[in-house]
Fold this sequence. Notes:
Layout: E1 7-12, E2 17-22, H1 44-55, H2 68-78, H3 80-111
Antiparallel strand pairs: 1-2
Amino acid sequence: GEVARHVKANVTNGGRQWGMGMDMAWSGTRSGSSLQVTPSASPAQLQQFDALQRAGTLPTGCPGRTCFLTGVEAVLMNHLGLIVLVIIPGVLFLGCGTCYLIAPQKVNQKLQ
């Protein structure tokens, strides 16, 4: 497991930022201490993103359904194991099995 004995934390920059480090020599703050920073406003871009997310109107990244092929590729890649291990052998088995069942009947018909 991870050794967290030397992980330290503090509040820096006049109470506006978290400080974290991993050093035996750094004093940091005692274990179990509660640290608080002064709240600050989020950047405008993050506020806009949050508003769009809450409204359920985030852009999908596929204007005009241009991501169709990407979606097809994702489905194929996610199901590649199924395709390779089940579907392809199944099709081959059915194809070969059908030939095996039909061929003897045709040979027998020609011999008679």
